[in-house]
Design a protein that fits this description.
Nucleotidyltransferase, domain 5, five-stranded mixed beta barrel, 48% helix
Length: 706
């Protein structure tokens, strides 16, 4: 990559150019974000996975820009208009809009009014007016009257069209207007369609709306642009055309000279026409697009943070699980899973109206708990969730059997997916959905990677933002989460394995096939025997795969095999074996990290090794905890301002957090009511009811100190 791009990325991220350069080199060698951030800290200066992913993003952006430059240079060159100065300006560009401004005068365009004027031979007249070289434009215009130009006014109008187009293609003019428009207010007004379509009512906040563009929150902007797209709003920026025209005219004259009165009138007419017909629509769209891109990034970052918290939700671990997908008329779909998530049994119970088979359901649940050694119960949080939880707690479960409520978001998507059909070809979607609920409790990360993140209900305006950027962010987020936790090589599904650094779907399938035929992996070295898993793939994935009860305890840690010899030296210097060293805090405390720095392995790597030796294979996620809603709150009618209730955060947006308080509608804690605290997805919190809008089913909440 060219140095100009490396320097730009470094400035944008606030890091050193050498860090960017080394990172890009590692990407070119086939390294992944998790591998670089975890095992190449010396080369990156300790950049974290978010910073590394940012470098990867901008590397791809500027690689595409370089291709665009090559295309632009070739086009201008073919026209015989490529000067050394223009080439230099293009090659030094790092901003897309500036690059396109330089290209605009040379870009092949559709037939315009200026095109017609040129065809009518009026460009020489326009040139003289443009260069302020004609004191009396009317007298000069008479020279151009002919078959295609019947009169003076037609000649002047054609010349003005050419000047107007030149102004609209001027990089200087466009940049001047951009600076003005960025400081203006965005305004939205209701259209005629909004007054007749009931769907428009959800946008009524914006029917007569105005706010400085630089201050508008991302969710407001995205809502306005969505409403405009649906035809309910007209959107504009309140740039003053008179002031903008004066600025363009003044700059035009300053660059040349102020024209005589008659020519000044013509130039000003061309300026006003260019602004109204060409520049204002173009610059307005460009600035709104620029603002939307910023809003997209903000919303996508919120989505990524929420997804991270969801994927890293506390697991209960490998426990025999009774999972229930609750319902009324169609019953509660119930499954029993072993400690590895395998389906043992499924049935449907009907403890709720209209069947009300409570006694029969109690007997069925008690029988399943005893027969299958159930340790935990997972209940989906959808329809009839509270009633099902109440029922289960009345069954008389053994004291050590805990009950959890689990988010159902995306479960129906999974149950109808190709992944689910492959896992359970003989079961219907209801059984698959219940299995997914149970597995989510056991290990949310392992189960949720099977579902498109956009179906998990943890973002805002996800369908309005840049879909390519959203996919990039979510893919990176899933990959980072999977590798930060680590994956059990002998139990992981192919879907989970495919997100491990350097693996992907094809190698994941090969690993599972080899595992099945070999009866499991006993060491990381065995990975080298997997078909098509070469040295590079081994380097990228080995440190993130765990083998419990392996002969070498380091195989169940985040210590990379390339550093096993360093651990060997540490153990030898202490006069103990590697097994004796791993997990022995007293021995590890005696190690001087500086003694083991060598080659590419500096202090960051050595310190990471010592940290891992203290707690090898530690899962960074917290343990799952039971939770109960307020017993006397069932419907929105039960709520009264001033009530204090327990709740669970279900979604986080730029404007606040949505909280489940045990009824059908989630409440909202507006960001202004958060008291400066930053909440996390699925966090248990205490809230106070501020307001209840029964007409619109809206609940306003405040955050209490926990």
């Amino acid at each position: 990559m060219k140095q100009i791009y490396i320097d730009t990325i470094a400035r944008r991220l606030g890091i050193k150019a050498w860090q960017v350069e080394n990172c890009i080199s590692l990407f070119e060698e086939g390294s992944t974000i998790p591998f670089i951030s975890r095992y190449r800290k010396e080369k990156t200066g300790g950049l974290d996975d978010v910073e590394v992913s940012e470098i990867k993003h901008w590397n791809e952006v500027y690689s595409e820009m370089e291709k665009r430059k090559e295309s632009i240079l070739a086009t201008i060159s073919s026209q015989g208009k490529l000067t050394d100065d223009l080439r230099d300006k293009i090659e030094k560009c790092v901003v897309s809009s500036e690059l396109e401004d330089l290209y605009l005068p040379f870009r092949p365009k559709r037939r315009t009014r200026a095109t017609v004027a040129r065809e009518n031979g009026l460009e020489p007249l326009a040139d003289k007016m443009w260069n302020v070289a004609v004191p009396d434009p009317e007298a000069e215009a008479r020279k151009f009257i002919g078959d295609k130009v019947p009169g003076v006014e037609e000649a002047l109008a054609g010349a003005r069209d050419i000047i107007a187009e030149r102004l609209s293609e001027s990089a200087q003019v466009r940049d001047t207007l951009r600076q003005i428009y960025r400081t203006r207010r965005i305004e939205s007004r209701a259209t005629k369609a909004a007054s007749t379509d009931p769907e428009a009512s959800r946008y009524r906040t914006y029917f007569n709306f105005s706010m400085p563009l630089q201050r508008i929150p991302s969710h407001n902007l995205l809502a306005i642009l969505r409403a405009e797209k649906e035809g309910f709003l007209s959107v504009s920026l309140d740039a003053d055309p008179q002031k903008c025209g004066n600025k363009i005219y003044y700059d035009f004259c300053k660059e040349r000279r102020f024209p005589a009165e008659k020519l000044a009138v013509q130039i000003r007419m061309a300026v006003d026409d260019s602004l109204k017909r060409l520049l204002d629509p173009s610059i307005t769209n460009e600035i709104l697009k620029e603002a939307k891109e910023k809003a997209d990034i903000e919303s996508i970052n919120v989505f990524g943070e929420n997804l991270t918290q969801l994927l890293l939700s506390p697991p209960v671990g490998q426990k025999r699980t009774l999972a229930i997908d609750p319902g009324y008329r169609n019953g509660c779909k119930t499954v029993c899973l072993d400690e590895r998530g395998n389906l043992l049994y499924h049935t449907i119970i009907y403890p709720h109206p209209p069947q009300n088979e409570k006694v029969k359901s109690i007997m069925a649940v008690s029988s399943m708990v005893e027969e299958y050694g159930i340790e935990v119960v997972a209940i989906g949080n959808g329809t009839a969730s509270r009633e099902t939880e109440d029922f289960i707690r009345k069954v008389g479960l053994p004291e050590d059997v805990k009950v959890y409520t689990v988010s159902e978001d995306g479960a129906s998507i999974y149950s109808a997916s190709e992944v689910a059909r492959k896992e359970f070809p003989d079961e219907d979607v209801t059984v698959r959905g219940a299995v997914s609920i149970g597995r989510r409790l056991m290990d949310p990360l392992a189960e949720l990677v099977k579902i498109d993140p956009k179906s998990l209900g943890v973002g805002q305006y996800q369908h309005d933002v840049d879909q390519n950027l959203l996919k990039e962010k979510l893919d990176n987020t899933v990959e980072i989460c999977v590798n930060n936790v680590g994956v059990n090589l002998n139990t992981a599904s192919p879907y989970l394995l495919s997100y491990v650094s350097g693996i992907g779907p094809a190698l994941a399938s090969n690993i599972v096939s080899y595992r099945d035929s070999a009866g499991g992996f006993s060491s990381r070295e065995q990975l080298r025997k997997v078909p098509k898993l070469g040295p590079k793939a081994f380097e990228q994935c080995a440190g993130f795969l765990r083998i419990k009860d392996a002969e070498n305890p380091l195989d169940n840690s985040a210590v990379h095999p390339e550093c096993y010899h360093i651990v060997g030296k540490m153990a030898s210097d202490l006069g103990v074996s590697g097994k004796e060293l791993v997990g022995n805090a007293e021995l590890i405390a005696k190690i001087d990290p500086a003694r083991y720095v060598e080659g590419d392995f500096g202090l960051p790597t050595i310190n990471d090794i010592l940290k891992e030796l203290s707690k090898p294979g530690l899962d960074p996620r917290q343990a799952a905890q039971e939770f109960s809603f307020a017993d006397d709150i069932r419907e929105i009618d039960d709520l009264k301002p001033g009530m204090e209730l327990p709740g669970i955060v279900t979604n986080i947006t730029a404007f606040g957090a949505f909280v489940d308080i045990g009824i059908h509608e989630n409440g909202l804690i507006h960001v202004s009511k958060m008291k400066g605290r930053k909440l996390k997805l699925h966090q248990r919190i205490n809230v106070t009811v501020l307001d209840v809008d029964l007409e619109r089913n809206r609940i306003s909440l405040g955050l209490l100190q926990s």
